[in-house]
Amino acid sequence: xxxxxxxxxxxxxxxxxxxxVSFKINSGEIVGxxxxxxxxxxxxxxxxxxxxxxxxGTVKVCGLDVEEESIEVRKKVGYLPEHNPxxxxxxxxxxxxxxxxxxxxxxxxxxxxEMISLVGLDKEQNKxxxxxxxxxxxxxxxxxxxxxxxEVLILxxxxxxxxxxxxxxxxxxxxxxxxxxxxxxxxxxxxxxxAICDRxxxxxxxxxxxxxxxxxxxxxxxxxxxxxxxxxQETSRNKLSAIPGVKSVKKVNGNQWLFAGEGDIRPIIAKxxxxxxxxxxxxxxxxxxxxxxxxxxTGN
Length: 300
Ligand code: ADP
What we know:
Layout: E1 3-12, E2 15-25, E3 30-34, H1 41-48, E4 56-61, E5 64-65, H2 70-76, E6 77-80, H3 92-102, H4 108-118, H5 134-146, E7 152-156, H6 164-178, E8 182-187, H7 190-196, E9 199-204, E10 207-213, H8 214-218, E11 224-231, H9 237-241, E12 246-253, E13 256-262, H10 266-275, E14 280-286, H11 290-298
Parallel strand pairs: 3-8, 3-9, 6-7, 7-8
Antiparallel strand pairs: 1-2, 1-4, 4-5, 9-10, 11-13, 11-14, 12-13
Bound molecules: adenosine-5'-diphosphate (ADP).
C-alpha cells in the first residue's frame, strides 16, 4: 500500500477542511483527486507530504506514519505543490543541483543530468528559471519532485495555467513517469482524469463523495441513469412518465425517447413496453462524461 488515509480531519480554526477522510492508494496506481475549489485537495496533499500536520486520524505513506516517521516519508515522496515555488533567479541546472544537495544524493551530477534529459530541459538547462515559460517551469518542478527517485508522487494541479500544447507535453510526461511510480494528482480538468488516471477520488467540502475506477463512477447506479429507447410505435409522454422509477422523459425524435431515473431503469421500461404491447427496438444506457459526473456529485 502506498498511501493510506484513515479518518483524517484537519481544522483551520473552527473550519473543518478535511472531515473524516479515508482512502487507500495501491502502489503503481495513478489516481486523480478531484473536487471544486476549497474542497480540501491541497490540504490533503500537504498532510501526505509532511508539510502540515493533520488534526486527527492516521496518514501513512509506504507504511510509514507521516508524523512519527516524517524524515523517512519525505525520502519516499516527491511533491509538486500547486504554486510551484521555484527560485526564479537560479539557473535550471544550478537549482536541480541544489535540490540534489538537499537530498544528499551520492550521484548528484549524473542524477541532475538524467532528470534534465527525462523532463526535456536539455536546451533550457543553462537558463534562469525566471526566463522559462510556465510549461518549462513545470518541467523543472517535476524534475525536483523526482530527483531522489521517490516511490510516490504527489502533484497538485500540475497542468493548471498551461496552454494546450504545454498541457499535452506535461500530461505525457506524467504518464511516462507514472509507469514506475504511484501518482496522486489533483486537477480540475476532466479529460485529464479520463486520459491519465486508473482511479478517481472525488472530494467535496472535506468529505470523500466517490472513490472508484473512472468508468465505474460514470456508470454508477446510485447516480441518475439515462437510457435511450426506441419503440416500434407511437406512445404518449404521459404514459411513459407515469412508469414508477422514471424521473423524466424526453422525446428525441420519432419513437425515440430519453428516460432518466435512479438506478437501473431498463427492466421497468421493458416491463412497461410488454404490458402496453410496445416493442423495444433499441435500448442504450448513455454513459456520462466525467464532467457530468463531477457536477452531479459535487453540485457545481
Ligand atoms: P482545494 O485544494 O480543494 O482548493 P484547500 O485544501 O486549499 O482546497 O482548502 C480547503 C479549505 O480550507 C478551504 O475552505 C480553504 O479556504 C481552507 N484553508 C486552506 N488553507 C488554509 C489556511 N492556511 N488557513 C485557513 N484556512 C485554510
